[in-house]
């Protein structure tokens, strides 16, 4: 995967194939290094990171060396890496990423609190949206399927932001304020992002790797005569573990299939987003 000057190598493997995967990664690194050298570019091994993803039980079964050689340097395995601003830990629990986002948001809220009385509610709401809510929404689709207890710090951030805008005390109930500000709770903001990405997939504006990860029900031959084949539904793959339900291949179609058909059939993206938010807002505040 290439993004600007960021190059990522991803190699899926079983526990028994860790050594062969390590060899392939080292060969790939050597090819990239030689290709860059031929164009008078030099890679920086000190900025190269390596991480192995898996469950705690799976990672405990790996007995071989998890480091790779990169030229004259040896890159050791890390527990946490930063990928486009997202902190990914080896077990993909995302606890450190959530805590980091919450810490940064509370820092911004403390700064805004110092000038709150000079701004007024409208300006404060605008600044909170720019400095706090934008951080909550950044790459929040990766939080799909996480337990509520893990995502709870982000909801506490939003509650604190609503209290700041409305000038409430810490003990005051915040739900009416969220409704008045028309702010979706964090878990519904995650669903909003999943449905928006699925809309881009459906309209052909999504990246290829997202489009290839989901399957329209109408394209499955065994279901061509079913009523679902005439709808805009997507196939939800079966998974044995709850961990698999966090993938976009599962969470995306699940969120999309739960939408009313009139929202799915919208051709204008602005109309789709407006109707989608109105639909989720009714679910969040019945």
Characterise this structure.
This protein is mainly alpha-helical and 286 residues long. Helices cover 51% and strands 6% of the residues. The protein has helices spanning 18-38, 56-60, 95-114, 116-119, 121-137, 148-166, 175-181, 186-203, 208-211, 248-257, 261-264, 269-284, and strands at residues 2-3, 6-7, 68-70, 73-75, 80-83, 86-89. The strands form three sheets. The protein has a two-stranded antiparallel ribbon. Strands 3-4 form a two-stranded antiparallel sheet. The radius of gyration is 22 Å and the shape is globular.
Order of helices and strands: EEHHEEEEHHHHHHHHHH
Uncertain stretches: none
* Percent of residues in helices: 40-55%
Briefly note the structural class of the backbone.
mainly alpha
Which radius of gyration do the C-alpha atoms yield?
22 Å
Give a quick precis of the structure.
By secondary structure, the protein is mainly alpha-helical. The chain is built from 12 helices and 6 strands. It has helices spanning 18-38, 56-60, 95-114, 116-119, 121-137, 148-166, 175-181, 186-203, 208-211, 248-257, 261-264, 269-284, and strands at 2-3, 6-7, 68-70, 73-75, 80-83, 86-89.
């Amino acid at each position: 995967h290439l993004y600007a000057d960021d190059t990522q190598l991803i190699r899926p493997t079983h526990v028994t194939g860790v050594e062969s995967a390590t060899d392939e990664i080292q060969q790939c690194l050597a090819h990239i290094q030689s290709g860059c050298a031929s164009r008078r570019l030099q890679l920086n091994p000190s900025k190269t990171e390596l991480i192995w993803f898996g469950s705690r039980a799976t990672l405990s079964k790996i007995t071989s060396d998890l480091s790779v050689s990169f030229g004259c340097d040896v890159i050791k395995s890390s527990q946490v890496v930063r990928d486009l601003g997202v902190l990914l830990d080896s077990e993909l629990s995302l606890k450190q990423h959530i805590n980091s986002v919450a810490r940064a948001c509370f820092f911004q809220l403390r700064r805004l609190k110092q000038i709150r009385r000079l701004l007024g509610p409208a300006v404060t709401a605008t600044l909170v949206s720019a400095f706090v809510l934008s951080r909550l929404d950044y790459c929040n689709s990766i939080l799909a399927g996480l337990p509520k207890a893990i995502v709870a710090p982000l909801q506490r951030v939003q509650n604190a932001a609503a209290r700041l805008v409305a000038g409430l005390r810490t003990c005051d109930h915040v739900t009416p304020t969220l409704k008045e500000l028309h702010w979706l709770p964090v878990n519904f903001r995650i669903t909003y992002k999943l449905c928006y990405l699925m809309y881009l997939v459906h309209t052909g504006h999504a990246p290829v790797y997202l489009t290839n990860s989901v399957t329209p029900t109408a394209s499955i031959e065994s279901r061509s005569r079913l009523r679902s084949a005439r709808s805009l539904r997507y196939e939800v793959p079966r998974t044995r573990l709850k961990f698999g339900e966090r993938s976009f291949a599962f969470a995306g179609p699940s969120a999309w299939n739960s939408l009313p058909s009139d929202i799915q059939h919208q051709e204008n993206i602005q109309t789709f987003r407006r109707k989608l938010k109105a639909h989720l807002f009714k679910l969040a505040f019945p």
